[in-house]
Write a structure and sequence with these properties.
CATH superfamily of the largest domain: P-loop containing nucleotide triphosphate hydrolases
Protein name: DNA 3'-5' helicase
Oligomer: single chain
Number of helices: 18
CATH architecture of the largest domain: 3-Layer(aba) Sandwich
Number of domains: 2
EC number: 5.6.2.4
Shape: globular
Largest sheet: 7 strands, parallel
Helix content: 25-40%
Number of strands: 13
CATH class of the largest domain: Alpha Beta
Radius of gyration: 27 Å
Biased composition (Polar residues): 1-14
Biased composition (Acidic residues): 427-437
Strand content: 5-15%
CATH topology of the largest domain: Rossmann fold
Structural class: alpha/beta
GO molecular function: 3'-5' DNA helicase activity; ATP binding; four-way junction helicase activity; nucleic acid binding
Length: 523
């Protein structure tokens, strides 16, 4: 932990007797109406002790927010600050706490008024990185006020994977490390997320000056057993979206009167308000109303960035589709994790990926290229050209698996060269290609032979994932168009040696096998 902070109180007036786990459970059940799990009790206990920082990694929708709200029940004058990436998420937390009789507020551009900061009226404060780290802002003054900081239980960095993923376009995330130099050394920090890879976790701990010898570590698996994972090869032209035709309700026929004028430019008047825009320029009143409309079904969908929905309490989503493999594995699991937050439901998540990303397509393409080169070599030799004038042999750069076992062309009969995955307006319309969705546990066709690079390759790929550097010789924009290594292994997991299961890719990337243990490294 960083030394030389402005205030060095060895004890906090907010401290008090530490309740037992049974006492925490009973009180929580009485106030919030839910029975907390053991790991949630340990989070609350660690924050109440206040002598160490806290790291909590747990799956999406498993209730990590309850863990850092429970301490408020045992510190009547205590204050919890939660740094959250989304204003709506903070607003939702404030609403749920108000029902339990805890005064809460979500600080944003509309509520960051002097009146709301003048008194210590609110005990739960949800705030964005931009607000808490604003130079000369109200929060900077509060965090330097000994009377205020003496009441702080902790500062929680929720959705901590954003520290590394969002730092480029929200630089205030990288400024959160300065909290160590502003706060008293006795104020603990807590970080929590469902999708912290080893690199993201190491970066977050270093940024916030958190050290494993002064940290309570609570690690749970990020796996969601009630979510079925599937990957489907895009069969038709990308811009036709024909692969998504199964979403059209059964019984609908072309020309149906309700849909005869349906188009992006001129939908029927009665449907024009069913899908709406949702972004940071909208008012908070609009956002709250549209979230309620989405949950109730009044609104069918929202056009928004992938940040919407992160941690949002919409419990009955049963189908999530990612169209094209354009994001990182951690982002993909965040999106998939929005399914079936009600543990009694079963959700289905599907990744529709471009054909170029599948090993069997790569193998077929490589085999055809080899055949073309062989034919060209034979023609060149027959023409009597000297060796110096013959076409040079080129390495196939389309496949990252140079030692992949190449199936015969006959085994892939019916496949065609796939489209360019980087162009959404182009694509293959081959209707004879494979149309089978491979979900976890299904059998693969014999033509899809296992690759030589499986689990070992995945571990190496994860270890090499880091920040973009100029040494790569490519621009950042070009790098972002490439396929994320983790997503590559997810797409081809069921035919790669040592994996044979797509769920295992997430387990390896988020180190789910180490749940309940310590970190494999020191910071």
């Amino acid at each position: 932990m960083a030394a030389s902070t402005p205030n060095q109180e060895s004890s906090r007036p907010n401290s008090g007797p530490i309740p037992t786990l049974n006492e925490i459970r009973e009180r929580t059940q009485q106030v919030f109406g839910v029975r907390p799990c053991l790991w949630q009790l340990k989070v609350a206990e660690a924050l109440l002790k206040g002598d160490k920082d806290v790291l909590c990694t747990v799956g999406t929708g498993m209730g990590k927010t309850l863990g850092f709200w429970m301490p408020l029940l045992f510190r009547p004058g205590g204050i919890q600050i939660v740094v959250t990436p989304l204003n709506m998420l903070g607003r939702q937390n404030a609403s749920s706490l108000a029902k339990a009789g805890i005064r809460a507020i979500a600080i944003n551009s509309e509520t960051a008024t002097p009146a709301n900061f003048a008194t210590f009226h609110y005990r739960a404060i949800a705030v964005s990185p931009e607000q808490i780290m604003k130079p000369g802002g109200m929060f900077e003054k509060l965090l330097k006020d000994p009377l205020f900081t003496s009441r702080l239980i902790s500062i929680v960095i929720d959705e901590a994977h954003c520290l590394t993923e969002w730092g480029e376009f929200r630089p205030e995330y990288t400024e959160l490390g300065r909290l160590r130099y502003i706060l008293p050394s006795s104020t603990p920090l807590m970080i929590t997320s469902a999708t912290l890879t080893a690199f993201a976790l190491t970066s977050a701990l270093r940024l916030l000056h958190m050290h494993t010898d002064r940290m309570v570590i609570i690690r749970r698996s990020s796996d969601r057993p009630n979510i079925k994972i599937g990957v489907k090869k895009i069969k038709y032209t990308l811009n036709s979206y024909t692969d998504l035709a199964f979403l059209i309700p059964e019984g609908w026929k072309p020309g149906h009167y309700k849909c005869r004028t349906l188009s992006p430019k001129a939908p029927p008047p009665e449907l024009r308000d069913k899908i709406k825009w949702f972004n940071s320029d909208m008012t908070m009143a609009y956002k709250e109303a549209e979230l309620e409309n989405l949950v109730s079904g009044e609104t069918w969908g929202l056009c928004t960035t992938d940040s919407f929905g992160m941690g949002m309490d919409v419990a009955d989503i049963v189908l999530i589709i990612q169209w094209r493999a354009t994001c990182k594995l951690a982002t993909l699991w965040q999106q998939f994790g929005r399914a079936a937050r009600n543990q009694e439901l079963t959700g289905t998540v599907l990744l529709f990926a471009e054909k170029d990303h599948f090993d069997d397509e790569r193998a077929t393409k490589a085999a055809r290229k080899a055949q073309r080169e062989k034919t060209q070599k034979r023609k060149t030799k027959a023409a009597g050209l000297p060796a110096s004038l013959r076409p040079a042999k080129c390495m196939d750069r389309s496949s990252p698996n140079k030692h992949m076992e190449v199936p015969s062309i006959e085994a892939n009969e019916g496949s065609t060269a796939s489209h360019d995955g980087g162009n959404a307006d182009e694509g293959s319309s081959d209707e004879e290609s494979d149309d089978e969705t491979y979900s976890s546990g299904t059998h693969l066709p014999q033509a899809a032979a296992p690759c030589a690079t499986g689990l070992e390759g995945l571990l190496k790929a994860i270890g090499n994932v880091g920040p973009t550097t100029k040494q790569d010789g490519r621009s950042r924009k070009r790098q972002k168009r490439g396929l994320d290594p983790g997503v590559d292994y997810l797409i081809n997991a069921e035919i790669r040696t040592g994996l044979m299961c797509r769920r295992k890719v997430f387990d390896v990337c988020f180190d789910n096998g180490a749940a309940g243990g310590n970190l494999p490294f020191a910071v």
